[in-house]
Amino acid sequence: MKLIQSSYLKNGCQPDFLREGIFEKEEPVIRIDHAIMATAQLEKTTRRLREQYGLGCLQGGLHPDGTRTWFIPLGSKYVNYIEILTVEDVERARKDFFGRWLLERIEEGESFVGWALQTDEIDAICARLNLLPEDGGVARPDGWRTSWTEAGFEQAGTSGWLPFFISYHNVDARRERARADLLQVQHAIEPIEISWISVGGNQQQLQQWMGSSTLPVRVVDAQPPGVQAVGIRTTQGEIIVK
Q1: Does the structure show a pLDDT above 80 at 128?
Q2: Is the pLDDT of residue 21 over 60?
Q3: Which of 38, 122, 131, 170 has the fewest other C-beta atoms within 10 Å?
Q4: Residue 212: which pLDDT band, with cuts at 50, 70 and 90?
Q5: Is residue 76 within 8 Å of 193, Cβ to Cβ?
Q6: Can you say whether the dihedral through the CA atoms of 60, 134, 159, 241 is positive or negative?
Q7: CA torsion sign, 8 to 74 to 238 to 25?
Q8: What DSSP letter does each residue of 184-199 carry, written as one string?
Q9: CA proximity to 56, closest of 45, 41, 40
Q10: SS3 at position 224
Q11: φ and ψ at 162, to 5 degrees?
């Protein structure tokens, strides 16, 4: 499979955030940020994503609970992505609630385990839903660090299908880093953004949770509930990641 190393910078085929005037558009209140896939067999999962979809992965940060993030960068100006979670330090994970939860999930095999909505107004969302915001952050292997405020993580985990909300502190720095990530990852295709997400759950409850925002979320009848598939718009057409 041919690798695309720098085609985003050729022939005008650039990620959204590199195009002139892109920031002049009105920003939505919330947008799809990322979907989370969990696996106990990282090498097998990343190989499948490469061979089946042409998507490469990069190593992210190690969390205090012993879990490690890998991710698939996309070309959106909002820097959305697919996160791949695995357990790197089992002993540390066993001592943490989320670590234990993830260990249980990956025993069931590779699957999507959650999703997040990015927002510029997390305080307003917390007030509307009576949520407590929590600050977080993680450092990449080279020391580059990103930080955020999140809310609704516990409710999302308990439901198994609701998204949590996230607001990044270093938006401009994330966009700058995304440029380098897209060149480094060597996708075999040119992914642009998450175009839609399919979720097993309750349509009315989801709309109440998200508020008045309209997002490309397809609610389906599925068991167990949760993320079923993610559509990704690419310059070669749409792919559906499952």
Answers
A1: yes
A2: no
A3: 170
A4: confident
A5: yes
A6: negative
A7: negative
A8: HH--SS-EEEEEEEEE
A9: 45
A10: coil
A11: -70, 150
Distance between CA atoms of residues 166 and 156, nearest Å: 12
127: left (phi over 0), alpha (psi -120 to 50) or beta: alpha
Lookup: tokens for 199: 């979720």
Q: Specify the pairing of strand 191-200 against strand 226-234.
A: antiparallel
- Write 127-135 long-range contacts (CB < 8 A, 24+): 128/211, 129/209, 131/155, 131/165
Are the C-beta atoms of residues 238 and 192 closer than 8 Å to each other?
no
According to DSSP, the β-strands at 81-87 and 111-119 are unpaired
pTM: 0.88
Write phi, then psi, for 169 (nearest 5 degrees).
-85, -30
Beta bridge partners of 237: 234
Q: Helices in 95-170 by DSSP H: which ranges? A: 97-107, 122-129, 153-159
Nearest-angstrom CA–CA distance, 29 and 134: 19
Question: What is the signed CA dihedral for 131, 230, 107, 134, rounded to 10 degrees?
Answer: -20
Query: What dotted CATH number matches 28-193?
Result: 3.10.180.10
pLDDT digits (tens, 9 = 90+) for 132-172: 999 999 999 999 999 999 999 999 999 999 999 999 999 99
What share of the chain in percent tops pLDDT 90?
A: 83
Domain spans of the chain? 28-193
Q: Mean pLDDT, the chain, as a whole number? A: 89
Stretch among 24-28, 48-52, 219-223 having the lowest mean pLDDT: 24-28
Amino acid at 229: A
Helices then strands, each counted (H, E), the chain: 7, 12
Is residue 28 helix, strand or coil? coil
